[in-house]
Structure formats: C-alpha cells, structure tokens
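Researcher: Here's a chain I'd like modeled. Treat it as a single chain, no partners, no ligands.
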Amino acid sequence: MKTRNYTPEIKDRAVRMLIEALSDYPSTWSAIQAIAPKIGCTPETLRSWHKKHIDQTIPASVQAQSDKERIKELERENRELKQANEIIRKAAAFFGPGGARPPTEIMVDFIDVNKQEYGIELICRVLPIAPSTYHRAKDLEECPDKRSLRSQHDDYYISEIKRIWQDSKCRYGARKVWQQMKADGLKVARCTVERLMKQYELQGGWRGKGKITTNSRDDQKRADDLVNRNFNAQRPNQLWVADFTYIKTMSGWVYTAFIIDVFARAIMGWKVSNRMNTDMVMAALNQAITDRNNPKAVIHHSDRGVQYLSIRYTDKMADSGVIASVGTTGDSYDNALAETVNGLYKTEVIDYLKQQWQGVNDVELATLEWVDWFNKTRLHSTIGYVSPFEFEKRYYDNLTLSGMAA
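Model: Modeled as a single isolated chain. Structure tokens:
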C-alpha cells in the first residue's frame, strides 16, 4: 500500500488544532484519537507530529506540562470529593435520623431534587442505589403498560428523533430526521415525525441569504466557463467547485475556502484564514489535490474572484493537470453548488453554534468537526439521503462488481 505524504502545512494545521482542542478532552491521547481521523491520519502519526512540535518549541516544559496535568487531575478529584460531601450532608437532612438504608422511593425523590446540581451518576455513586435502579423506578412511575399504544410508540419515536437530531448537532429538520429513521430500519410516517418534533419544539437549521464576496477585475485573464451551470458528474474527480465565505469574529473578519467534488458533494479541501488572499484558496487546493492523489483532467470551477485568477493559483492547477473553468462575477447561479455548501456552513456552523466567534482558532476547530460530519455522516437529498463518502464507496463497490462480472 502506498504511503501517504503530508505537506508541512497539513502537519502544522493538525498540531495547531490538536493544541486548541486539548482543553475539551480529559487527556492528550483522547484528544489525539478524536482529531486524527478528521485530519485523515492515524492517531500515532498525529502523536508523533505533536511530540516533534513540543521538542522543537518547548522541550524544557515537558515535565512542567506533566505536573500541570497532574494538578488538574487533583483539582478534579478534590472537586468531586467536595460534591460528595455536600451530597452526604443534604442526604442526611433529607432522609432524617436512623442508620437503616432509606427506601428506594425516598432516594429517587432525593435524586429528582438534586440531579440538576450534581448529576444522577455522582449521586448514585454516593448513595446506596444504582443508576439503573433509579431509571427503572422512573420508568415505572410512567406506567407505560397502562398508556395508549400510540403514546407508547410516541415515546419510542421521540427518543429516536432526539438521538438523530442531537447527533446532527440539532441541524436536521423533520425531513432529514425521517430519512435517517428509515435508513435505520424504523417504519414511521413523516407526519408523525413532524408532529412529534413540533410538540417537543425540535427544529433544524434555516438557511438565509449570504452576501457576495467575489472581487474581480475585468482586465484579468481568465478561463472559459466549461460548466454552464450543469453541476452534474458521473464519477469522482470529474468536476470540482471552489468558493469561500466570510465570518465576523471578535478579532475581525475570518474567511473559509472550500473545494467540493460535485459527484458526491464531498468537501475535499478547506482552509480558514484571516486574509482573503491567494494563500487561503491555494491551501484548500493543495489539500484537495493531495487527498485525491493528484487526479488528472479534473475540471475546477470557480467564480471570477481575483484569488482564483492569480498567476500562482492558475499555474498550480496547470502543473497538477487540473482544468480551470470560471463563471460570472456576482451571479450565484454560475457557482450554485459551492454557494449551497457555503450556505449550509453558515447555517449549520457559524450562525448555529455560537453567537460570537473569537477568531481563526475557534472557527477552524468548528470547521474541522463540521467537515468531518458533513463528509461521513450528513444525509444529502441530492444523492439519495446518504453521506458523500458512503455514496462514493457505493460507486467504487459497483465498479469492482462490474469488473468481477466482466
């Protein structure tokens, strides 16, 4: 198997995003395991890049970092011990005098009163009651055997709806939730999904209009439009579309560039930058070319932005065997698919996850998570409600079967 080569830029970006995400994970290794598949490398590879970065930049702080992590662990244990003591004091007052084990019903009541502050798991570790016992008691309170068949079905359906909706980071509406339930083998009417989502106030993301970011020069040499608004492809690496969008942050404007393979709508390259220049779009192009193993004769379609018409960018495409195609300035229909991805990105990440973004770092980390979910999990109606990577996998599987039959 051919060994994959990673550019220095990809390595630096991977390490930077790992460092940015360390505070969200209990250990460095767990952060590495979470980030590495999204970068497209093994955890061991990312670990070696991170170690090399530490050795080159802060070799003397390795022991200090270890001490810092130990202090953090001790602080966490101390915090949990304090919470356990608080639970014991409150339980003693709640249960009253006596050394006998309190009845299960009384302990369930105590958990109901205090679970918002301490959580069920922590209270159950302190009290002589298992979490499963608590949940079973709560289930019995609902008396499911006495409820109507529709209500029992609704309980099951809403639990699945919430799971799918939450797995999508609350981005899916009723249509995609219903499609995912069908893919999971659940037979339910779409109107039922719509009714339950409305009843429980579950709503997906809504797309709005974006503003035009294309800045062109009429005197700049450019390629012809080889697409003519026909955004269809019969195979991977036949047609790519490229565009970028903007994000307002507390530290200034940030820009995100994407390159999308039209066949399965997969995002093959992306870059977040605080500069709207050639380096930004060049980084996304380099990633796409590398991830696709240097494909030849692929058409690259973009608008007439000066970044995509720069000499460095066009020379890179020519050297890589990529064929340039350029649309019309300010006309979103001439690059409609890329505009659609930009709209989804703004709806499902920028406008949905936060009201205010700090700058490049948090936007970049959120983009990494979203692109990974977008390619591997998100259902796309235009390709039969499967993910882009699943659609490509089916294409290559069919090629293999056709070859075996021949």
